Amino acid sequence: MSGAPRPRGVLARWEAVLPLTPRTPRITLGEGDTPLVRSAAIERELGLDELWFKLESCNPTGSFKDRGMVVAAARAIERGAESLLCASTGNTSASAAAYAARCGLRAGILVPRGRVAAGKLAQAAAFGARIVEIEGGFDDALRLARELAANRPVALVNSVNPDRIEGQKTAAFEICEELGDAPDALAIPVGNAGNVTAYWKGFRECAELDRASRHPRMLGFQAAGAAPIVRGAPVAEPRTVATAIRIGNPASWRGATDARDESGGAIEAVSDEEILDAWRLLARAEGLFVEPASAAGVAGLRKLAREGGLRGGRVVAVLTGSGLKDPETAREHCAPDMAAAPATLEGVERALGL
Ligand code: F0G
Known about the structure:
The chain is of the alpha/beta class and 354 residues long. 42% of the residues lie in helices and 14% in strands.
């Protein structure tokens, strides 16, 4: 067999539903087209007909951010930008730094000091981004980034940039295509609320374009110590082990509540303990190592099931980022089953309990 390889990446694959022009450079790092994997254990625990995991950790920088970043970077280049700027709890900055490196742009990233998981900072450093540690939280960093972008010739690539939302909505298109329709519900962690907004836009468009016959219920989950949407007011000092979603005043607040209300869904809070339990279960019972924030969706489904609020059917849980992003939390919360042994067969047999 011969022939050209299938075009890869979000821009090539989803051109028809993205705001691209003939002048938009068709850049890619191979993002999108992530696996949808059926649950082996949690599905039964929850009493669902089907539970599927969308493995967004399989994107090139290890999180869903790449889907939106490729669109935002391409459109920024089209408009003549030379620098990308973002505020981030870590994953947006890793992604912005990667696409900037790929495209010969500068990247400036504002991160809350001491609150970014090690893997994410290592990525931004490797890609050569200028990292500015802010003595404050993500919300301070985003406020400053927005002010800077209003006055300086830099492209702001946070999810307040509509191109990010456009790119991220393609995950909903992939899910509808693979399942043959929209699922009954989508479970997703909520931080700055761009992703839940993007999925809802994607599912609405799928229905409009006859790629789906219905909409899913959108089930968003915030960490209890950083749950402004659930409480109905900003949280001044958000706290959670899930540093990716340690956000007190989400930029896409309205997008999240619209998704909830229009879909007949819910946005609820899960405790750090519930997040870590779900995170451990994903690793131990499903073989899926995600970062803590990514487990918030599954933690939320377990909570709804316990409270009788899950209606069965077919559910998709979005696993937003890789466990390799945050090795410190993994070490801290999962004691390794480890032993030392001399370099002898007997010693190793004993250590393995054989
Ligand atoms: N999961 C992960 C792994 C994230 O990094 C984020 C957000 C979310 C979920 C929540 O998505 O903000 O669209 O509601 N991370 C941003 C960042 C804030 O800077 O990397 P959201």
